[in-house]
Specification:
The protein is 34% helix and 18% strand. It is built from 12 helices and 13 strands. Helix 6 links the parallel strand 7 and strand 8. It has 418 residues and is α+β, with helices and mostly antiparallel strands. Pfam families: Integrase_H2C2 (PF17921), rve (PF00665).
Length: 418
């Protein structure tokens, strides 16, 4: 007789086939006694994988996770010692499961910052809109300096290449030739007219990866700030936003920026911007009288220039420390970082698909083959249409090693059951 006392039965996860004394051999099959009744324990051939595959992908499977799939096998009356391990292996290779779900901030790549030492060396440009028509304008073209955070913006009826080229000419004429301009890969930036203009001034054009605006983060941050200012100042009348744009720029330029520890205006001119209410409330500057002492004015100006250099050096150090702290905090909240290698197969998350109201279609497309992975987080991929570049945040490794399809067999023991 076999005892069915619960305290004599080890938990399923810790039971050992060789140590179990609650087994029964019937014909060529091995059974064990458990709290849910008699369970088939041993079988030959690829049956183990077949049972798991049916409990996961079959009509009643539901593509649940490894633990729930293994539990369904147990509930069906089957068991073998490494059932949970093999369930995890099977689920990792399931094509449907790999294409499910979204990406989150925890899936991002380690943060990479852009280091710039001189004012107006690097500009980030981007379009905002379309907005409600305001005096014929529907878009805002924004440019921001990466060091001082100084912003320029222009309202425009269109977002085409000519608008961008004219805007860049205006920037160069007022602030000199930058070393680089960063933009996304939209057709209003990636075109012959703009490239010809930039080549004329010796400016290098750098692109952020497709569908990953964070790569041009400074322009994106400025866009959000200006948009928020406009939302709060248009008095529920969207048609006047173009009239409020200059005021929004003024507010932005005179606002304290945490990374630099200063305002864009002070970073550029070495002094605070005087505001209208200073006259009304008698600020010290408003009470001062204009004097024409050239010597005293010259000394004062010299001191101001030295202070400006110190201010910019300090702002550079503050910005560097701020970026390091942000990177440390950002990277600490990531999951296990994906390391892509040449030849890996990956799925890509398509962020701008338009779906039906049901939203049942997967956003993961591919698989694609990795050609090269860069330390900055960019990855070169190969598809049927050719090579393209994407940020690693939108990728995940694709596992096509299906143990059921490959005919792998699970052997319970080396000796046949007799």
């Amino acid at each position: 007789m076999f005892s069915d006392s619960e305290n004599q039965i080890n938990p399923i996860r810790t039971i050992r086939f060789s140590e179990s004394n609650l087994c029964l051999v019937f014909q060529v099959y091995l059974f064990r006694f458990g709290k849910h009744g008699i369970t088939l324990m041993g079988f030959r051939g690829p049956a183990a994988w077949g049972i798991l595959d049916n409990c996961h992908k079959g009509p009643t499977g539901g593509h649940f996770g490894a633990n729930l799939t293994a539990r369904k096998v147990l509930e069906s009356g089957f068991y073998w010692p490494t059932i949970f391990k093999y369930a995890h292996t099977l689920i990792k290779s399931c094509d449907a499961c790999q294409r499910a779900g979204n990406i989150t901030k925890k899936d991002e790549m380690p943060q990479q910052s852009i280091s710039v030492s001189e004012v107006f060396d690097v500009w980030g440009i981007d379009f905002m809109g379309p907005f409600p028509d305001s005096k014929g304008n529907k878009y805002i073209l924004v440019a921001v300096d990466y060091v001082s955070k100084w912003a320029e913006a222009k309202a425009s009826p269109t977002n085409d290449a000519k608008v961008v080229a004219d805007f860049v000419k205006s920037l160069v004429c007022r602030y000199g030739c930058p070393k680089a301009i960063i933009s996304d890969r939209g057709t209003h930036f990636a075109n012959y007219l703009l490239e010809k203009t930039l080549k004329r001034y010796g400016v290098h054009h750098r692109f952020s990866t497709t569908y990953h605006p964070q790569a041009n983060g400074q322009a994106e941050n400025t866009n959000r700030a200006l948009k928020l200012i406009l939302e709060k100042t248009i008095d529920n009348n969207p048609k006047i936003w173009s009239q409020k744009l200059e005021d929004a720029l003024w507010a932005y330029r005179t606002a304290y920026k945490t990374p630099s520890g200063s305002t864009p205006y002070r970073m550029l001119y070495g002094k605070a911007c005087h505001l209208p209410f200073e006259f009304e409330y008698k600020a010290l500057w408003a009470l001062k009288k204009i004097h024409f002492d050239d010597i005293a004015s010259g000394k004062e100006r010299l001191i101001s220039l030295h202070e400006l250099e110190e201010l910019r050096s300090l702002a550079y150090e503050n910005s560097k420390i701020y970026k390091e702290q942000r990177k440390k905090w950002h990277d600490a909240h990531l999951k296990e970082i994906n390391v892509f290698k040449e030849g890996d197969k990956v799925l890509m998350y398509q962020t701008r698909f338009k779906f039906s109201p049901g939203k049942l279609k997967s956003r993961w497309i591919g698989p694609y083959v990795v050609l090269k992975a860069y330390p900055s987080g960019y990855v070169d991929l190969m598809s049927e249409r050719g090579e393209f570049k994407v940020n690693g945040h939108r990728l995940k490794l694709y596992n096509e090693n299906d143990p059921v399809r490959n005919g792998e067999v699970y052997h319970l023991s080396k000796e046949p059951i007799t």
